[in-house]
Amino acid sequence: MTRNVSALISLFSVLSFVLGPHAYAHDGSHPDLGASPVRAASHAPIGVMGDHRHKAGEWMVSYRYMQGGMDGLRQGTNDRDPAAVLQSGGNAYRILPSSMTMKMHMLGAMYAPTDDVTLTLMGSYLDKEMSHTTYAGMMGSAVAGEFTTHSRGWGDLRFGALVKLWEKDAHSFHGNLSLSIPTGSIKERDTVLMPNGQYASRRMPYGMQLGSGTWDPTVGVTYNGRSGQLSWGSQYLATFRSGRNDEGYSLGDRHAFTGWAAYSSEPWFSLSARLAAHTQQEISGRDRQISGPVPTADPGNYGGEQADLFLGTNLAGQRGLLRNHRLGLEVGLPVYQDANGLQLERDWSVVIGYQYAF
């Protein structure tokens, strides 16, 4: 992982000491008289959004930092060697991506006008970096050079509602409804090294853009359950694209499912394991300004099926100024990937986040 991620994890460890067992008196009682413990496991792992509702009049603000890495090429369920791609692809590809890092800062707010409905708002700032190798001429494997492209800026804005469906004892279901507003740019450009050895300004491929360009509704359902020191939950979300954007394409519809379980030995601390899986269709249509002998310019090289395993922890402050402040950390690794066409292979991901309810 990068130096930035290591620094964040170190900071998380320090804050876990601050938020941890000192929140309790030496006799094990809660230090805020008349106040019940704040359960760390009452929220899902930090990588899950829209997992819980609030009581009428409550607010919650949140910040999440997400970072993911991709490395190497994959086609379907198989790794692909660049030399083999060049040989089998004829003259189709003379530029191949080698790695990608995506960083995302997510800011969120939740407000409950009633016990049955919680409103949500989420915005994100993205920082994407993709490295490439350019091969000289029209054929062969001679390397002309390497280059890296970047895109940075605000992504799409999403607002929605969590609606109570059913609740009894320690079990509950709620509906997830949201709409993504196309505020993120889909016209990002950078300089690329062409096979003839010249540098040129080009519109970057679809995966390097900051938004979808379409108004995208998401619908789903979330379940939460608890028994003693164990808690668990699951969530299904479906995102649909509302036609093609102004540049002539739409990202593929996406169906995602995740399930998790958490164990909490003390109210302030929990450990979790989560499995997340999704399927996404390839891009429909084409941006005529996204072109070139590179697989990321082909709409057919997007989407597929993916499953990831996450391990995480939640911490919840219990007293004084720390009460109702939460920290969460998740680290994920792919366990299955079936890519549409030729793509970069998912490598790892990490999410660290902060939440405060009042």
The N- and C-terminal alpha carbons lie at a distance of 34 Å
Q: In DSSP terms, counting alpha (H) and pi (I) runs of 4 or more, how many helices?
A: 2
Name the helicity range.
Answer: under 10%
Total strands: 17
The dominant shape is elongated
Average pLDDT reading: 92
Strand residues, percent: over 45%
Coarse structural class: mainly beta
* Rg (C-alpha, Å): 22 Å
Largest sheet: 11 strands, antiparallel, barrel
How would you characterize this protein structure?
The chain has 358 residues and is mainly beta. The protein has two helices and 17 strands. The protein has helices at residues 3-19, 82-88, and strands spanning 59-76, 78-80, 95-111, 117-135, 143-154, 157-168, 171-181, 189-193, 199-203, 216-227, 230-239, 249-250, 254-266, 269-280, 284-285, 304-316, 325-357.
